[in-house]
Input
Amino acid sequence: MVVISIIQSYSWSYPTMKCANNVPISTSGRSGTNTNLTCVVDCSTDGGYSVNPVNILTDCVSASSSLGMMTSERSVNATLLAGAHFYISYRGSAWRAVDSPQQNNLYWSIVCFIDLRLRPDGIINTPPEANVVSPQYAIVNRTTQIQIPVSDVNAGDDLRCRWSVYVPGHRRRRQSNAEENLYDQSAHHMYRKIRADEEIPHIRKKRTCGGGNTCYGSTCDNNCCCTSTPCLSAPSCIGQNCGSSSGCPIVTTSTTSTTTTTTTTTTTAQNTTTLETPGTLPITSSYPVRQAIDECGGICYPNTVPNGTTLSNCTLTFTGLIPNTWYAVSIQVEDFIDSTSMTPMSSVPVQFLIYVMPTPNCSITPIIIPLNGCLEVTAGVMKSFNIFVINRCNPFLSNVSDIIVSAGITGMEVSNITQSSANASLVYVTFTWTPQINQLGQQQLCIIAFTE
Output
């Protein structure tokens, strides 16, 4: 058995969604919105996942009124059979209105590939991690490069980003019998070859009545297969055949179907700032061999980004031409054993929004102090520390509006933003944390400062 951790991180509209544990069901009116991460492909080798699936509930990490955004996250352990490999998915609705012209109620589909088979180097793979804050911001008419931060504990793995796609399901084509594939390769050389790798189309012949007689209109010749008992126009039926040359009528079977109509009432939740109407999930087709893999739902590239948007080496290049417009991006982060391999060992979804804002009064980015560093703490002992942000713009033109935790540490609390009394360009937040014994080792904290 192998124990894995499934980490989910989501961004929500705030205060439409409440910052609390068990998001989204902790919000009033959302008690029925819990669901599971569902196995969608290769479920026969899911190692027992479908018996005890993981739900989509997460816990609030941070919330910002100025940005109208709340982030939630949760890590859940699952015990699976060694060698399991399968795809899990979370489908729901809806994205906020995106693109120009505006598209509404687009559904989301997030797919992750889990593979516990041994890698070529003999170990079980650990998938890459990617932390992207949603939304990202771009200034109108200015080319912006958005770096997708990726990391992997397996040193030497080749990490790549690609656009998420929809992979259709398929049915296995009928294979011909090997004996039917024998053929004379030459009229002079009596060689025979079994063309096992080829497929020959089979022509379905019209079924005839018993004894080789053919059906005509509504009746059949003598000895046709009986379709009713007794045969209405013949003296008697003998086994499957009619005993009269007058023929046997073909019986038409009528099927009565009962249709039940269900009326569904959609509830629209509204507060003073946000109007939200859940979208409708499309009906998925079922395939007998392999199900479809829907990695991007309603936001598959290039449908919800401006023309000319590109992705290269996990860097998104984006130019928004219309201010006050939202766009949606769906990317898969995959790890490969080396730079020559074309077979990913795992696939992790990253989906986020981009907002194109008008030209700001000041576009100089603030500075976070310390920019990076390491702080030693002791399990069971409370620790408090400050992180400062310097506004490099004129305070009368632009201010630091918020400081957001993009990657938090379980149990760590953060204060509201505080203005320095000694420097009008300096703000800070205070973090308080009591490390637990199960948190021994390196923990990572990432923050982002926003100006307005």
